[in-house]
Amino acid sequence: MSSAVVHLPDIRDLAEQVRFTPDTGRIWVRDQRGVLLTASVYGALRRELIDRLGPAATRELLSRIGYAEGGRDAEAARRLRPDVSYFDAFAVGPQVHALAGFGWSEVVHLNAEPESGAFAGEFLVHDSLEAATHLDAYGQSPEPVCWMQSGYASGFASAFAGRPILMREVECRGMGHEACRLIGKPLDEWLTQAPDTRYYQPEASVNRFADAPAGEHDGVVGISAGFGAAMHLLRKAADSRATLLFVGETGAGKEVFARLAHRMSGRRNEPFVAVNCAALPETLIETELFGVVKGAYTGASKSRAGRFERADGGTLFLDEVTSLSLAAQGKLLRALQEREIERVGDNQTRRVDVRVMAACNVDLRQAVDDGRFREDLYFRLTTFPVPIPPLRERRDDIPLLMAHLLRRFCTEHDKTVPGFTARAVEALFAYDFPGNVRELENIIERAVLLAGDGEPIDLPQLALRGGPPRLAAFALDAAGRLSDGAPLENNDVRAQVSGLLAAETHGGRFAAIEHALLEQAVGDARGNLAAAARALGLTRRQVQLRLERHRRAASSAG
Predict the structure, then answer these.
(1) Nearest to residue 246, comparing CAs of 258, 259, 238?
(2) Fewer CB within 10 Å: N-end or C-end of the chain?
(3) Which residues contact 373 (CB under 8 A, 6 or more apart)?
(4) What distance separates the 2 farthest-apart alpha carbons in the chain?
(5) Beta pairing partners, 4
(6) Residue 291, burial from CB neighbour count under 10 angstroms (0-12, 13-18, 19+)
(7) In this predicted model, which residue has the larger pLDDT, 506 or 330?
(8) Of 209, 257, 249, 195, residue with least CA distance to 230
(9) What does DSSP assign to residue 505?
(10) What CATH number should be reported for the domain whose range is 37-210?
């Protein structure tokens, strides 16, 4: 495709991806938490980097960070704008850059052939934030200074074109030019290999943001401070022999973290045996943990190994350990201290090499004070406690968990669910999740089963306890102001809806209202179904199918 001085598409669909929830002090940019920085703060940070690291090292660092973020946005571009032209999807990059406040872009020309990977483009960036802050700190520069901007453009174009594209800044406002001019073409087509080519090579310390979601390890997903603290503790103690105690509410993921600790240890190839102590009758707890010999009691028709012996060489995880009887606690303490167990009804001990991990959802110290838990066992288990915060205290993890669980359940149930509607995302971000991660798992699995194939998950399919939470949430409107999503502004649609509600129709009022809304949205979008779908919060396919159904019904009725 080829274009010259083309106007970028309407940016409202991207502006709607920015949500402000002042009640929780969070800004969401798509599925990530964002933060507002003033130009003076950004400039001070940039100046500190240059003064401390030097211009060359700072340029390399900022270029790499920009490159990684550009690649991430390119991966999201097709999801944000499905069923649109190459140019409209590619425009996500310049428009997201503008939404972030770095300056607005103009496409001078863009020639691209997606099939062959051919790419040639020229872009102007007006009012560059990087150039302005550099001029303010150091005055005019003899060379381009928009390092993060060039890195972002190169990362976005490379990921979008499927081959390395270098966006080189040939004019810069920081050099005294009216605007910043970027020329982009494949890396191997540049005649001179300038130092900037090495800035865009993968580097783990920066490009980790462009790979799989941070912190995703076989179902352990997160990026929040609470999640990071738990992971830090795991890395410190996972490969030791220390007894780990996971403390957290029911459903917070204590066993999931315990399994991860086992996989991070040198025992990863040995058994991991989990026991829910609360699910075992008190009369069977000792038998289940330590085993039994034939004839020990009525019904013991054969000898049987307990969980300790089955976990020999590996890890034994005791969930809800406070449910153990005091007698069982005494035997557990001996097994931990002496590394030997005795089967019920036996008169000989057996050596076991087991790494014990435990979990509880109550205050263990309080259980000791109440006489329900042995103090000596308390000190043995609390060698290395790992707090697992509830999901409501690590809300930054919710978007990652939503995406991870959606992929997982779509695979398990052989469904194609493209994602979540805006109001479903808003409801999940605001929900308190009394059942923690386990509740989120159940909610999303049920929603995947209820959602139609190819349709996003919407609010009715979530079935949140107590109904959808009401939280003040704001998005950017077309004028760039914060809007709380007021009712429909279009008087024509409102008038039609009022008339249809008042009329005694025979075909069903809801169907007539839906038809009127669809037709009005398509008319406002000048026939562009994708734009109409974005305005309605639907997919293009949903709009097309519903319009066809309504038009067939109207035709047959006529």
Answers:
(1) 258
(2) C
(3) 322, 329, 364, 367
(4) 94
(5) 109
(6) buried
(7) 330
(8) 257
(9) -
(10) 3.30.1380.20
| pLDDT beyond 90 at 316 | yes
Burial 20-35 (b: 16+ CB within 10 A, else e): bbeeeebbbebbebee
Q: What is the mean pLDDT of residues 198-226?
A: 53
Are 387 and 220 a contacting pair, CB within 8 Å?
no
What average pLDDT does the segment 287-293 reach? Answer: 85
Count other Cβ atoms within 10 Å, centred on residue 302. Answer: 8
Task: Name 457's bridge partners.
Answer: 420
Q: Which pLDDT belongs to residue 491?
A: 45
User: DSSP letters of 75-97?
Assistant: HHHHHHSTT--HHHHHTHHHHHH
Q: Which residue has the higher pLDDT, 255 or 195?
A: 255
Helix (H, G, I), strand (E, B) or coil at 358: strand
Apex CA 458: angle with CA 453 and CA 463, to 5°? 110
Q: What does the alpha-carbon distance between residue 256 and residue 441 come to, in Å, rounded to a whole number?
A: 13
For residues 131 and 141, give the distance between their C-alpha atoms in angstroms, rounded to a whole number: 9
**Gap between the Cα atoms of 156 and 94, Å rounded:** 9
Task: Report the range of poorest mean pLDDT among 72-81, 211-220, 452-461.
Answer: 211-220
Q: How many CB atoms lie within 10 A of CB 111?
A: 14
Give the integer Cα–Cα distance in Å for 143 and 36.
29
Q: Which residues lie below 8 Å from residue 355, measured CB to CB, with a gap of 6+?
A: 241, 243, 262, 265, 267, 314, 315, 316
The CB density around residue 466, as the number of other CB atoms within 10 Å, is: 8
What pLDDT, on a 0 to 100 scale, did the predictor assign at position 542?
78
Query: Is residue 121 a contact partner of residue 184, using CB atoms and an 8 Å limit?
Result: yes
How far is C-alpha 492 from the geometric centre of its chain's CA atoms? 39
Among 50-59, 169-178, 492-501, where is mean pLDDT lowest? Answer: 492-501
DSSP annotation of 143 reads S
Mean pLDDT is lowest, of 248-257, 260-269, 330-339, 468-477, for 468-477
Query: Is residue 149 within 8 Å of 102, Cβ to Cβ?
Result: yes
**How many CB atoms within 10 Å of residue 371?**
9
Q: Which residue in this structure is represented by tokens 């997160």?
A: 222
The CATH number assigned to the domain with range 225-388 reads 3.40.50.300
Q: What is the pLDDT of residues 96-117, one digit of tens each?
A: 888 888 998 988 988 887 766 6
In the chain, % helix, strand, coil (3-state, to 5) comes to 50, 15, 35
For 85, the token pair is 């032209």
CA-closest candidate to residue 102, choices 153, 143, 59, 52: 153
Tell me where in the chain the CATH 3.30.1380.20 domain(s) lie.
Answer: 37-210
Q: Cβ contacts of residue 1 below 8 Å, gap of 6+? A: 85, 86, 87, 110, 111, 112, 113, 114
- In terms of C-beta density within 10 A (0-12 exposed, 13-18 middle, 19 or more buried), how is residue 407 classed? exposed
CATH class of 392-483: mainly alpha
Q: Which residues of 233-271 are buried (b: 16+ CB within 10 A; e: fewer)?
A: bbeebbeeeebbbbbbbebbbbbbbbbbbbbbbebeebe
Could you count the other beta carbons within 10 Å of the beta carbon of residue 376?
A: 12
> Per DSSP, which regions of 7-164 are E strands?
18-21, 26-29, 32-34, 104-113, 118-126
Asked whether the beta carbons of 407 and 443 are under 8 A apart, the reply is: no
